[in-house]
Amino acid sequence: MIFNRPELRPSFLRLTTPVRTVLAALALVGVFGGVLGGVFGGVMPSLAQAKPLKLEKEELKFGFIKLTDMAPLAIAYEKGYFEDEGLYVTLEPQANWKVLLDRTIDGELDGAHMLAGQPLGATIGIGTKAKIITAFSMDLNGNAITVSNDVWKRMKKYVPKDASGKPIHPIKADALKPVVDAYKAEGKPFNMGMVFPVSTHNYELRYWLAAGGIRPGYYAPSDISGQIMADAYLSVTPPPQMPATMEAGTISGYCVGEPWNQQAVFKGIGVPVVTDYGIWKNNPEKVFGVSAAWAKKYPNTHLAVIKALIRAAIWLDANHNANRSEAVKILARPEYVGADAKVIANSMTGTFEYEKGDKRSVPDFNVFFRYFATYPYYSDAIWYLTQMRRWGQIPEAKPDSWYAKIAKEVYRPDIYLKAAKMLVDEGKASKKDFPWMSDGYRPPQSHFIDNIVYDAHKPNAYLEKFKIGLKGNERIEGGKIVGKP
Fold it and tell me: What Pfam families does the record tag this protein with (predicted)?
């Protein structure tokens, strides 16, 4: 657990909010400016740039899972961005995604590092039903799919090679299909791990498999295993346990965030075959989620949190990732990710290692701010909803208007832009770095591994394009697909 003890804070930061506000106001008009600037060094200049928010709550506890994409929380803490906003934050690692969500819902956590699908899944009642919102997207990309050494040996002969004999990336699941077919012929299940039923990893793994003609299985109200009619059987495994579970032979591969793909390379037990950048270029990955009730009760506190997180994201991507080496050292500490710094650096600093020794430049493997990464797009939310429908988690057909309604209920770019404007006004961010005129929708996207174009304004038409997956009025009953597409 990482925490700020009030008694250990600098004396100025221990002052009550009203007193801090008065001092900041005095600094704004120049009264005591020189004296206070000399006494408090770098603190007063940031406070002097704008009137602080009147916070409804100062002491906060945020949850996270030990993955490198929790970095905005760690950096906002370590660089003092939370305290700049008058916030005193405890960061606490959680056992798994369900515990993290439940504790956010019941108020034990004020907010958390969440899977992009978690606020959506909770809002529409997949698993625990609760209203969760997000006003901040934590990153783009950051995941990969890893297979065991044995599976890689069997699929490698089907992988296209370049003139030097190296595999051509991204590797498609077409190369895995003969291996899965052989397992079926031998009467053996082909098992793979993902981190949670509404995780980005689940949908990315399913997308990749289906694009290669491998059915990942369906969900139904009467069977939430997600393995109905499956060729490959997907099940939940907590991220830090992925390498050991594969090494034990329980699963033959998995989709997870870093550093747990690179850990397989370092341990010599598996090979990452594709990153999610190769499955969907610049896909949204994690979000910062809070309950809708919390956001309503503490609106200014919420804005302050988003401001601090935006500053952290800017720092993480600044000067072409110049700060990443420092970020790696921070994340390697046991209170954050707790993995070897060399393992974290293998992807965090702009490279990615596939087979042992096959390290390639992937500068956008982790993106925290550029490409408007932190803006919560409605179109990102709708993509996840289409995948929930595609695999039966949303069991019945929904009109296009429903997708837009849920996206706008959960994703809150209005809150995000309000926080961004405050940072720009304070001189802590550049106006050009935010999509002020966006309607919340990205233009139609074609950067998918199967080249299918995604237009968020037409989710049902998008679903019609897939050979594998539910569409139209189809549903799962009695272990099979019924209804008209």
Answer: NMT1_2
Torsion-angle region of 98 (φ positive above 0: left; ψ -120 to 50: alpha; else: beta): alpha
**Tens-digit pLDDT string for the chain (485 aa):** 665 544 444 333 333 344 444 434 433 443 333 333 333 333 333 334 467 899 999 999 999 999 999 999 999 999 999 999 999 999 999 999 999 999 999 999 999 999 999 999 999 999 889 999 999 999 999 999 999 999 999 999 999 999 999 999 999 999 999 999 999 999 999 999 999 999 999 999 999 999 999 999 999 999 999 999 999 999 999 999 999 999 999 999 999 999 999 999 999 999 999 999 999 999 999 999 999 999 999 999 999 999 999 999 999 999 999 999 999 999 999 999 999 999 999 999 999 999 999 999 999 999 999 999 999 999 999 999 999 999 999 999 999 999 999 999 999 999 999 999 999 999 999 999 999 999 999 999 999 999 999 999 999 999 999 999 999 999 999 999 999 88
Largest CA distance in the chain: 81
Last residue of a domain, one of 250, 275, 300: 275
Q: What is the CATH number of the domain that holds 208?
A: 3.40.190.10
pTM confidence score: 0.90
| Cα 107 from chain centre | 22
In the chain, the number of structural domains is 2
Tokens encoding 152: 């890689």
Kindly write down the DSSP assignment for every residue of 208-220, as one continuous string: HHHHTT----EEE
Pick the last residue of a domain from 37, 52, 67: 52
